[in-house]
Structure formats: C-alpha cells, structure tokens
Design a protein that fits this description.
about 140 residues; alpha/beta; Rossmann fold; five-stranded parallel beta sheet; 5 strands; about 20% strand
Length: about 140
C-alpha cells in the first residue's frame, strides 16, 4: 500500500456471484498507474476478518470503496463505520447496485447510508457489470 500513491480497500459481499463483481472492481482499480486495490481477504495473517482488522486497514488506505448489493452478508457493519466515523466517511465511495423490479431492496437503514453518500456525490449507481466498470472508472 505504501509503495503506491493511492490504495483502495474494496468492501462487499463474498458470495459466489457478488465476489466476481468485487474482483472486477479490484481489477479495474489495479489497472491504474500507481494504485493498489485489494479486499480484506487479500490481507493474510493470523487474524480473521473482524472489525479490528477492518479498522486497522481502513486507517491506512487512501480510499474505501463499497460495492453494495442486496444479498445477505453484505458489508452492513462496515457501512455503519463508513458513515459513523468522520475519517472513514471522508475517504469512502459506494457503488450501489440498482434493481429494476424493486423500489427499496436495501431497507431504511441502508437507504440512509446511501443518501449521505449521494449528498456528497460519492454514490455511484449501477445495474449491469458494464455499468459497474463505468462507475468504477469514475472513482478518484
């Protein structure tokens, strides 16, 4: 992380299909000159994926990037940290999946999180993987 000008900590669902999209975002960001993108599972060691691990990593990266989908085990706890901590919020961006057949697939708590990011112009909407690539390319 320290060898590059920018580092991206990519958060999201590790389910079978959603992790493909996390990998897509990570790959796109790693194509940038002098940038390093990674997921929590890419940091190896003797610790599990925990809040402590999240906070240690989040403290030292340039940007936190959440890929939000409605599937269970999304990064719900981390979203609370992103909006509840000034330092994390200031360097966070969210790529939110939109669903054609649902008005509120995320619930009122997550909708409040998304509104905060939208107010700061750091919420990027996508429907397809092609849209996700375009949204990723818009990140700083």
């Amino acid at each position: 992380m320290y060898e590059n000008d920018r580092s991206y900590f990519v958060l999201g669902n590790y389910g079978r299909e959603p992790i493909r999209r996390l990998n897509l975002v990570t790959d796109r960001l790693n194509r940038r000159t002098d940038a390093y993108a990674f997921r929590m599972v890419d940091i190896h060691g003797e610790w599990d994926n925990s809040i402590q691990k999240f906070c240690l990593i989040a403290d030292i990266v340039t940007y936190l990037v959440g890929v939000a989908e409605k599937e269970p085990s999304d990064f719900l706890v981390e979203q609370g940290f992103l909006v509840g901590t000034v330092d994390y919020f200031s360097k966070s961006h969210v790529l939110k999946r939109e669903y054609e057949d649902e008005d509120h697939p995320f619930g009122w708590m997550q909708d409040g999180v998304f509104e905060r990011f939208d107010d700061e112009d750091r919420l990027y909407r996508w429907r397809t993987e092609a849209d996700l690539v375009e949204a990723t390319d818009e990140l700083p």
